[in-house]
UniProtKB/TrEMBL annotation:
<dbReference type="InterPro" id="IPR018045">
    <property type="entry name" value="S04_transporter_CS"/>
</dbReference>
<dbReference type="InterPro" id="IPR036513">
    <property type="entry name" value="STAS_dom_sf"/>
</dbReference>
<dbReference type="Pfam" id="PF00916">
    <property type="entry name" value="Sulfate_transp"/>
</dbReference>
<dbReference type="InterPro" id="IPR011547">
    <property type="entry name" value="SLC26A/SulP_dom"/>
</dbReference>
<dbReference type="InterPro" id="IPR001902">
    <property type="entry name" value="SLC26A/SulP_fam"/>
</dbReference>
<dbReference type="GO" id="GO:0016324">
    <property type="term" value="C:apical plasma membrane"/>
</dbReference>
<feature type="transmembrane region" description="Helical">
    <location>
        <begin position="472"/>
        <end position="501"/>
    </location>
</feature>
<keyword id="KW-0812">Transmembrane</keyword>
<dbReference type="Pfam" id="PF01740">
    <property type="entry name" value="STAS"/>
</dbReference>
<keyword id="KW-1133">Transmembrane helix</keyword>
<dbReference type="InterPro" id="IPR002645">
    <property type="entry name" value="STAS_dom"/>
</dbReference>
<protein>
    <recommendedName>
        <fullName>Sulfate transporter</fullName>
    </recommendedName>
</protein>
<keyword id="KW-0813">Transport</keyword>
<feature type="transmembrane region" description="Helical">
    <location>
        <begin position="376"/>
        <end position="398"/>
    </location>
</feature>
<feature type="transmembrane region" description="Helical">
    <location>
        <begin position="212"/>
        <end position="230"/>
    </location>
</feature>
<feature type="transmembrane region" description="Helical">
    <location>
        <begin position="96"/>
        <end position="119"/>
    </location>
</feature>
<keyword id="KW-0325">Glycoprotein</keyword>
Amino acid sequence: FLMERKTHVKINRKEVMLAKLRKSCSCTPQKLKNFVMDFFPVLRWLPKYRCKEYIWGDVMSGLVIGIILVPQAIAYSLLAGLKPIYSLYTSFFANIIYFLMGTSRHVSVGIFSLISLMVGQVVDRELLLAGFDLNDDVPPALGDGSLQNDNLSNTTAFNLTIAGINAECGKECYAIGIATALTFVAGVYQVLMGIFRLGFVSMYLSESVLDGFATGASLTILTAQVKYLIGIKIPRSQGHGMLVITWINIFRNISQANVCDVITSAICIVVLVTAKELGDRYKHKLKFPLPTELVVIVVATLVSHYGKLNEMYASSVSGAIPTGFIPPKAPEFNLMLRVAVDALPLAIVSFVFTVSLSEMFAKKYAYTIRANQEMFAVGFCNIIPSFFHSFATSAALAKTLVKTSTGCQTQISGVISAMVVLLVLLFLAPLFYSLQKCVLACIIIVSLRGALRKFRDVPARYHVNKVDTLVWVVTMSASALVSTEIGLLVGIVFSMLCIIVRTQRPRTALLGQIQDTSFYEDDLEYENLSTVPKVKIFRFEAPLYYANRNYFLKSLYRLTNLDPNLEAARRKKYEKKEKQHLKKGNHRTANGLGIGETTLQLVPKQIDFQALVLDCSSISFLDTTGVNTFKEILKDYKNLNISVLLACCNPSVIDSLKRGGYFGRDYGCMQEMLFYSVHNAVLFAKDQK
């Protein structure tokens, strides 16, 4: 029987588009109000803020994150190749803007190690192209830490006219110019993606790709920090293969290691790792995480200052960090053109990490976020701060976990964190003058524990899915051994190729009947299945399209042990020989049989079925090639007096076959060709003469 299909009213797409356009272009007070409230979600939730219920958790989590942010911001400036003051600016502005525009209550947006690394790689490359020496480590000038002294001490003697930068712009000035231009362009990309609703791009970054990218980038980050750990001066490698080149340079210069930095690094790593492990083990007993990084930085700064480690042992220190805010400045347009391509992967990675974390915690705490608004939020977290000497930001998992564990309820906690950073910016920054760079490197390396622990998960990942494990390994290897941007691209392309290959060579099976039931399963996978006499049941577990057409036919012919084209050719050849014998007057055939016996020879012995049932339950769609393949099968088997029956086709496949003329012009034979279950098709085949 055939079920009656519903008739769908045809939609006039032109009228629908015009109606939507008129609606979107109309402007009413209510619509304007909704637009503003949607663009600034804080206007919706802040008036409903339950002060007595939320304030303590928000203040506590804000203070803890602020305390963590300060040392991390100073440390991650090494990754970005910029001065610590710019990292503090970034952390301050990102928290304020996300408070106004973000829809997640819990994510911590600010400086992030992977984003800092990507920014730093572009900054280093452009500095080299501009003629600057990446290892131009000018001793920090002694002063009061004011902006004027800092700017003077960092102006180098390079005479530049490149990209429109004037001759007075030194290395630091040019570096932050590149970073702000890169950040601005990345933010513009994110806003444009939000306007055109291109958030679906994130779907192509699978969990395996993201994990592999994060792990590979973590290896690059770790490698870049080793020289600070042991206090050696080596060229900062650029381009592809940076990880291998850097390790070669490290081993070549290992004899020049600074003993003071090595001892300091060993102590700091032991303290940080021990504190982290204890914190993880007893986190259910602790009301808030231990501020280990801050304690280490304070103690290390005091030891370095009073022990005069820089003067006596030539230990590299952070130098003067100015207080206050540098006057805002628009990013250079000429520099934007130089970094436009680099900004695209930066924009995608920043957005994907932010949205994935937002969705994770929204699901955990039972509320919803708007992915499109998140794209706008993270976009403006890049655009606006770029005018204030800040670089790219993203949500960070580690700080977000700390936030939720310390009682965060809303983004008020982000404002509290920003106030802590502001306190450092206005008053406390100069106190970090004597902080050793090796201490900052230790903080960065210990923060990579989570990403590096992914190596322990490889066996379990391999047990669950071998293809996903291969994607992870390829992405991680490319990100570490080639470059982070190339690694991300390789991961996306390779994961898509894996999907294509899996649809090109899917599982195929001949089905047998489960005894005393109307169900059928793979004959090679299950025991005690009974074959159906004179009927072959073939299942193809993928869409049928141009790329897997040949595999479909080869599998069908192999499993049924019959190629209808070869059989037709054999028959024609046989008939031709028969005609030749008859013309010669020989009434015996080529096989030595009489003419009456010839008909028996036309049907080969190996054809042991009279009906072929195609189980289409796993075929989600057919393209033109797929429809033509079905028509070809129908014709070829019909020439051999074998009927082809289709079972379990979804409406999309049925419509494709109808449009392709598979059932004939008036669909008259449809009832004898299409069945809603395999068992119905088998019963029909058995009833055929």
